[in-house]
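Two entries, shown back to back:
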Amino acid sequence: TLFPYTTLFRSGGREQKIFWSAAGIFFFYIETFTDNLLSKVGGILMNVGLERKEFDNVDAKLVNPFIDAFISVMPQIGFPTPKRIKVYLQNKTVNSSGVIVSIGFTRQLKGKVAYNMNEDTAKFIASTMMMGMPVAEFDEMAQSAIAEMANMLTATSATNLTALDLSVDISPPSLTVGAQPFTISDAQFLVVEMDLGGHKVDIAVSVDRAA
């Protein structure tokens, strides 16, 4: 498999993660402090112009760990600091821009997160993760890099969710190429548009607390 393995261990009150691919192409080290505080949900949503009343049917605070993960992790692996563009609600399906990586949640959280981008953005991300190696085609190696990124972001999001007293497991990344709609939910979900050095990545979050 091209999907990465993840090793987690604790040291000195910190949770440390090492990510690597089976092919040995990528090696990343990320250190996450377990006392990392989440941003206040009201501040995040109001800063991007979305009224709280629009979230009556969505637990908006569950989105913060994903935004925080994207903003904190991407600069650690060579990208410019991401910026939020906007947040909005969408129904049932993600309108694919060309490349989607989705990861599911189980245990105390159910649902999915999907990272949606066009192929040029996917190649930009893959190239950056491979130390600037040119990526002319979105081939198997580039797809593996995108899956690595999604795994890293979601694992960090899962760690952030512990601040909400939620313990979760995540599935391996699933990558879809093509412009077809991608069903992520049977109800409304939140989409956070992020700017990454002039490239747009949409984070679609459809999660809820398990019964």
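entry 2 starts here
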Amino acid sequence: MITGEVIADLLPRCKLGDWSGATIFHLRPIAPDNQTAKAKGPLPPQDADFSAPFQSGHWRSSLSDIVRGGLIWGIIRVPCGEPPVSGHWSLTAGVAVLALRWKKVLHGAVGATICGTAGKSGLGRAATGKMRTMADLKEQDNSGFSHVQRAARLSVAPMMEWTDRHCRYLHRLLSHQVLLYTEMVTAPALVRGGALHLLDYSPEEHPVALQLGGSDAVELGQAAQLGARAGYDEINLNCGCPSDRVQSGAFGAVLMQSPDLVAECVAEMRAKVSVEVTVKCRIGVDAQEPRDILPVFLEKIRAAGCQRVTIHARKAWLKGLSPKENRDIPPLDYDLVHEMKRAFGDMHISLNGGIASLDAALEHLDRGLDGVMVGRAAYHQPSDILAAADARVYGVGAARDPFDVVQQMLPYIEDQMTQGARLHQISRHMLGLFAGRPGARAWRRVLSEGASRPGSGPDLVLQAMQQVQNPPIAI
């Protein structure tokens, strides 16, 4: 049996920074007082043989299917203050990590063999006794944050009400490599409101970054800790959102006016987590002169330890323009972002704003930028941006077929619906999958009109897909 101390020595040899051959696997212990879980079966007995495959009656998986083999990393979440879930566990809080060797997975059931279990010091603890989070473990390879920085060559922007977990799951099926971002989550919601459900995600989403909104350094540090414990690969600070609601909380783009405060927040967040802390910003706000203030802003956050920044190449007008208008009306200044890369050569600088095609993203990469973040185009035409990204941006794999992606979404839809999700909550993100193809309008119509109806499920998605596979012939 491998103890927690030995696991700490074993993991660095597993090349955790390379996720191309791995799948993140999330297992949730079933608490005896969980009414929903009772139907799934009892906890493993105190003398359970954990070298044997898990049984579906003992454990409930957040995955319906696993189609890739190889090394699987399992995250078992143990609620703070809860007693140990069985005699083999000594954890009472935090995140534990198991190395699981893939054996077989049936639909809705888990088949896996544990290669390492918990010793008295707690599963995943180093010799110091400090809890090892999933994110801590992935940072142990010699390349530091290289696996996330490599993914950041192309990323999908955090977009409120759009890039939720269902959207990110779809995007991950289209590209195994791109870096995905959550919607912005406010630090007060996590720290004061206890809204930890906002941190939920599917393990397949890795690499995935959590974007935080806030301006209180201590609170942001606490929120960053919660994000790191949840397993996020990066914590990003929002200094670019121009909405009135965000401004009233003194965060978002208004922070461009307070670079010292931003630096303080970055420093506090970095002190609390081992994953990379990054910033997303504008080139300036209101009457600021971008060529004067942007270098100062970058210098401040670099001195605080931020080595990666995404710059939306537009100013934000906090007064006079709506958030929607701020995405289109202020002119783009791509050249300024390229100038910042030349001036801050040691920083990883990504460009955001107005990127409408994969070709456009590649042009900026070819000119010397480290990364490109795509927003609305990745949402409305996800196949155009993401399906060929692995091959064209990262030089691996082949272009994904959106028809295959729809098929791969079906078990996810079924699984999420058993947990209470409605079809339209997932299918709304799929409307643009076939943008530009014959039958795309019919695909959107079938999903839009039918997904909210009671009883709608995966069958409706298949019905909609038939509209694209066999589009009506115009006469």
